[in-house]
C-alpha cells in the first residue's frame, strides 16, 4: 500500500514538473511571439535577428508572415516616395515653361491683332492657367497622400475663417449676379487655418461655379462635439446616388464635363478636413441646390495646439477646378 502511494506521488510529481515545464515553454513562446509582433508594429522586425532552428512551427510561420508583411510595407513606402518624387519633378520642370506661356500671352495681348487671333490667344492663356493649377494641385495631393504635409491645428474662430473665404470669392460671385453672405455665431474650433481655408475655399468655389442664379450662404454652427461650417447654394443640385462619388479624385459630375475643372477640389477638401480630425457631409436635391458641411473638432483646451501629419493623410486661392 505504501509502495502504491509512493508511486502515485512520484507520478504526480512528474506530471506537475512536466506541466510546469510545458507552461514555461508556452510562456516563452508567447513572449517571443509578442516581441516579434511588437517589433513588426514598430517597424523594427527583421528575419536576420532570429534563428529558425530555435522556433516551433508556429513561431516559424509567424516570422515568415511578418517578414513578408514588412517587405510589402517597405515596397509600398518606396513606391509612394517614387511617385511623390516623380510628381514633384514634373511640377518643377513644368513651372517655368507654363509661367513663360502665361507671360508671353499677356504681352501679345497688348499688340494689335485680329479678333480671331485674340480668341486663340485667350484660349492659350486659359489652358496655361489650367495646366499651372493642375500641376500645383497634383503636388498638394501627393504631399497629402504620402504624409509629407504636416498640419498645425490650433484653436480658432470659424466665423472669421468663413468671412475670409467669402471675401476671397465675393467678386467672382458678384460677376454672376449671385448674392453671398455669412451667417452664424463666432465658434471656436480646432483646425489648421491655412489648409482648412483651402478646403472651405474649394467648396465655395464649387458653389459659385455651378450656381447660375440665387445665392450662396456660408453658415457657422456649434454642435456637442464639432463646430460646423455649411456652404448652401441654390444651384442645380445632384442625384442622391452621385453624392458618394463627388469626393473621388478627378470625378466630374454628369452634365458638367464641359465646365472648367479637373475634379480635384472636393477630393483635396475631404483629405484636408479628414487629416485634421474632421469630416465633410454633402446633402443635395436636384433643382433645389446643395449643402456642404465641414465638421471640425472642438478645441480640447483654451490654447490647445498640436501638429498632425496629413494623409492615408490651403492656400486660400485654390479652386476646385
TrEMBL record:
It catalyses: ATP + protein L-histidine = ADP + protein N-phospho-L-histidine. Its EC number is 2.7.13.3. Residues 89-300 form the Histidine kinase domain. GO terms for molecular function: phosphorelay sensor kinase activity. It holds the Pfam family HisKA. PROSITE patterns: HIS_KIN. The keyword Phosphoprotein applies. Keywords: Kinase, Phosphoprotein, Transferase, Two-component regulatory system. It is an enzyme of class 2 (transferase). PANTHER family: HISTIDINE KINASE 1, TWO-COMPONENT HISTIDINE KINASE. This is histidine kinase.
Amino acid at each position: 500500500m505504501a509502495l502504491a502511494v509512493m508511486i502515485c506521488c512520484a507520478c504526480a510529481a512528474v506530471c506537475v514538473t512536466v506541466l510546469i515545464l510545458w507552461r514555461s515553454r508556452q510562456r516563452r513562446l508567447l513572449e517571443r511571439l509578442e516581441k516579434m509582433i511588437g517589433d513588426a508594429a514598430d517597424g523594427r522586425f527583421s528575419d536576420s535577428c532570429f534563428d529558425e532552428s530555435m522556433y516551433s512551427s508556429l513561431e516559424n510561420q509567424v516570422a515568415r508572415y511578418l517578414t513578408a508583411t514588412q517587405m510589402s510595407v517597405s515596397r509600398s513606402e518606396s513606391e509612394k516616395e517614387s511617385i511623390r518624387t516623380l510628381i514633384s519633378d514634373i511640377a518643377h520642370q513644368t513651372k517655368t515653361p507654363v509661367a513663360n506661356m502665361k507671360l508671353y500671352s499677356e504681352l501679345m495681348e497688348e499688340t494689335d491683332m485680329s479678333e480671331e487671333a485674340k480668341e486663340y490667344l485667350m484660349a492659350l492663356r486659359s489652358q496655361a492657367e489650367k495646366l499651372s493649377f493642375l500641376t500645383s494641385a497634383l503636388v498638394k495631393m501627393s504631399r497629402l497622400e504620402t504624409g509629407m504635409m504636416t498640419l498645425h491645428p490650433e484653436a480658432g474662430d470659424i466665423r472669421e475663417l468663413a468671412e475670409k473665404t467669402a471675401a476671397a470669392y465675393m467678386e467672382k460671385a458678384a460677376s454672376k449676379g449671385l448674392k453671398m453672405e455669412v451667417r452664424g455665431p463666432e465658434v471656436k474650433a480646432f483646425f489648421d487655418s491655412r489648409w482648412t481655408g483651402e478646403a472651405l475655399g474649394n467648396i465655395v468655389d464649387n458653389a459659385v461655379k455651378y450656381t447660375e442664379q440665387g445665392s450662396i450662404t456660408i453658415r457657422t454652427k456649434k454642435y456637442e462635439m464639432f463646430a460646423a461650417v455649411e456652404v448652401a447654394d441654390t444651384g442645380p443640385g445632384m442625384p442622391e446616388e452621385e453624392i458618394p462619388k463627388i469626393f473621388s479624385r478627378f470625378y466630374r459630375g454628369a452634365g458638367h464635363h464641359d465646365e472648367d475643372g479637373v475634379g480635384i477640389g472636393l477630393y483635396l477638401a475631404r483629405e484636408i478636413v479628414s487629416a485634421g480630425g474632421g469630416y465633410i457631409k454633402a446633402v443635395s436635391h436636384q433643382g433645389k441646390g446643395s449643402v456642404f458641411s465641414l465638421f471640425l473638432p472642438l478645441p480640447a483646451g483654451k490654447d490647445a495646439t498640436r501638429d498632425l501629419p496629413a494623409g492615408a493623410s490651403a492656400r486660400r486661392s485654390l479652386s476646385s477646378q
